[in-house]
Automatic annotation (TrEMBL):
Chain residue ranges for the region called Disordered: 1-66
GO CC annotation terms, alphabetical: cytoplasm; plasma membrane
Organism: Anseranas semipalmata
Top-level taxon of the source organism: Eukaryota
Molecular function via GO: Toll-like receptor 2 binding; Toll-like receptor 4 binding
SMART domains xrefs: TIR (SM00255)
TIR domain boundaries: 73-209
Protein name: TIRAP protein
Amino acid sequence: AGWFRRLLQKPKQSSSCAGSSLHATAGHTASSSPSSSSSSARSSGSSASTGMVRAGRPPRVDISSSGSARWAKSYDVCICHSEVDLEFVEELVSYLESQPESFRCFLQLRDAVAGNAIVTELCDAVQNSHCWVMLITPSFLQDPWCKYQMHQALAEAPMANGRTIPVLKDIDRKDYPRELRNLYYIYTVLKENSFRQIRDTVLRYLEELCRSSASGTE
């Protein structure tokens, strides 16, 4: 009887000891190397996140193909600016037009038809462009024609993500036009960085436009 009772007790003791040993080992491991444990968690989390981003990234679209929706309008981007800021805008236009995508830019002093009414030219430029860059400067805020063109763009596509691209230069955030408060803006600190951001935003919109158009015709 005694040996039978001991036989019944052994598994319980063994199980209890094993549990205590496992808990102690786990506690020792966690306390002895917290950095390796946390870095491993970060690494696995990062890998999962990267995998999700890669998996969710839409395929690239050839916006230069002859049948793409890009060619439905005369210009890829219309630059709305004050004449005082012409030098900066000419650099931006030169940058965009020299990109591999050869963006088509509307520059009022260069592309407006001589003899046409200013209102007509501004409205046509907005309607015939996919995206509108608003160079918000102190001169822009004081120019009634700039504000007119801004309102035309907002009326053309008030909720189209990526079409209206506000770019702030030499003004405080508090002076950001209220009409654009629901849109993120690009703040010009380094010219090269802001030019690249504008280029990426225009390209992203055109790719999405062509992708949606292609899927709609399939």
